[in-house]
Specification:
Elements lengths: L2 H5 L2 H13 E2 L2 E2 L8 E4 L1 H22 L1 H4 L3 H25 E10 L2 E8 L17 H12 L9 H7 L11 E3 H10 L10 H12 L4 E4 L34 E4 L16 E4 L18 E6 L3 E3 L14 E3 L5 H18 L2 E4 L10 H14 L5
Parallel strand pairs: 10-12
Antiparallel strand pairs: 1-2, 3-4, 4-5, 6-8, 7-8, 9-13, 10-11
Length: 378
């Protein structure tokens, strides 16, 4: 924004900002969720102008030093004043951008969300040349200080935001280009630092079984509800590199629409090694290999006599079912942690019933929030 924008009346600035948020020239702006306005502080504008005027005057005098017959003492004073005004200009630049305006959807249309520095100072200052790192400071404000711009997102967030698997008929697939466009177009979606964030989320989603990935022309959905593409060209439930993801020609498909895949099974309380969230055989095992199943017997003691020996080396999957109170759960969790060490990762589903019903506040504060803080829930 021009310098005069910072010194204009508040109402005029807001009207100009909304015009920028809503329109790009004569057409409606598409990527509004990828736009932010860094607004200059009025008091710093005058300081900056004053210092720059002095620096221009000093340069003009230096160019005519011979004509003006400047003495060495006067030249020294000129250099000293130049250093002073340069430092003042850089200081003003450091404080020039104290807030950023973001577009936000409200009942009456687009409004302005003001993101300000507040009482906590920004940590980024000058570079090695003693110049103000203006852009880096604005990014620090948005990413680190006020958390309005995100460097990561999750596969489940993509599924949720684009309603994959929902609707009538359900949305079974989406172009990766539409995913990127959506994040940068729809106000209310998380604001992302760059498109590489989407690429990272897609690679994790493929590996964890949230969706399959295909690159090429948009596939056709068959009458059986599965996309008509060669299974060999679909990446699903395997590790892939970020360089394999094409955000322009790629296509994501929900697990039930992946060729050759079956819908995910459901269960109550299980701990399953190597099992992705959407089901399917564990890596390294097959559907024909029965798991080692451990269930409570004789008042809660575990008994595996009906299954394979625990010491057998052929076990590829372990399923554990039990009911526990608070104290037993603490003891059991160490055993589950040991299982996670053996498998690398376990998938856990917990079911709890209450005859009186759960208190929503206690459930939110005591259960859901701690799990979200541990990045176990979105």
């Amino acid at each position: 924004m021009p310098l005069n924008f910072g010194t204009a009346a508040r109402s005029g600035r807001e009207a100009a900002a909304k015009e920028i948020f809503e329109n790009c020239g004569d057409i409606l702006r598409k990527y509004r969720n990828g736009l932010a306005l860094a607004v200059r502080a009025a008091e710093q504008i005058e300081i900056l102008r004053h210092s720059v005027r002095y620096l221009l005057a000093i340069e003009h005098v230096r160019e005519k030093s011979k004509q003006l017959n400047l003495t060495e003492e006067q030249k020294s004073q000129l250099r000293e004043r130049e250093h002073t005004e340069t430092a003042a200009a850089e200081s003003a630049l450091l404080k020039l951008y104290a807030e950023v305006w973001l577009p936000k959807v409200a009942a009456d249309g687009i409004v302005i969300e003001v993101v300000a520095v507040g009482g906590r100072p920004l940590q980024i200052t000058l570079n090695e040349k003693k110049q103000a790192r203006v852009h880096d400071r604005v990014m620090e404000l948005l990413v680190d200080l006020q958390h309005r711009l995100f460097t990561t997102t999750t596969p489940s967030k993509i599924v949720e935001l684009f309603k994959l698997g929902e609707g009538s008929p359900p949305t079974l697939g989406i172009k990766t280009a539409d995913v990127v466009d959506g994040f940068y177009s729809f106000l209310g979606f998380p604001r992302l630092l760059n498109s590489a964030v989407v690429k990272k989320a897609i690679t994790k989603g493929i590996q964890d079984g949230f969706f399959g990935y295909f690159s090429g022309s948009t596939p056709v959905l068959g009458s059986d509800g599965k996309y008509q593409v060669p299974l060999a060209r679909v990446r699903y439930n395997i590790a892939v590199g970020e360089d394999e993801i094409d955000l322009e020609s790629g296509f994501l498909m929900v697990p039930q629409a992946v060729p050759g895949e079956s819908p995910a099974p459901t269960g109550e309380f299980t701990g399953q090694t190597g099992l992705p969230p959407q089901g399917g055989p564990p890596q390294g095992g097959t559907d024909s290999e029965p798991p080692l199943v451990l269930t409570p017997q004789h008042g809660g003691a575990s008994d595996a006599s009906g299954g394979s020996s625990v010491g057998a080396a052929a076990e590829k999957r372990v399923e554990i079912n039990f009911s526990a109170d608070r104290n037993q759960l603490f003891s059991a969790w160490n055993a589950i942690a040991n299982l996670a060490d053996l498998a690398g990762r376990v998938s856990v589903t917990v079911r709890a019933d209450s005859a009186e019903g759960f208190d929503r506040n206690k459930l939110q504060n005591g259960v859901l929030e701690p799990l979200r803080e541990s990045d176990l829930l979105d």
